[in-house]
Specification:
The protein has about 70 residues and is α+β, with helices and mostly antiparallel strands. About 35% of the residues lie in helices and about 20% in strands.
Length: about 70
């Protein structure tokens, strides 16, 4: 029996963040897609090299959607 193993990064997050990551993946060309498997609504298995790219995209999204009270 042949066994295939894939090295990846397990992400556990809430549903909105998982959707954000799925949409980020969908916005990329096929050669750059990084999701290996969507396990369920809150767990994803992705390629290891995209960790920093996901963090940056999340930080940028958070910054764009933060409300700062005017002084």
């Amino acid at each position: 029996m042949m066994v295939n193993a894939t090295k990846g990064l397990f992400i556990s997050c809430d549903i909105p963040m998982a959707q954000f990551i799925i949409n980020l993946n969908a916005s990329l060309p096929a050669s750059q897609k990084f999701i290996i498997y969507v396990l369920d609504n809150t767990h994803l298995f992705v390629q290891t090299h995209v960790a920093e790219m996901i963090r940056s995209a999340m930080a940028e999204f958070r910054d764009q959607n933060s409300y700062e009270k005017p002084t």
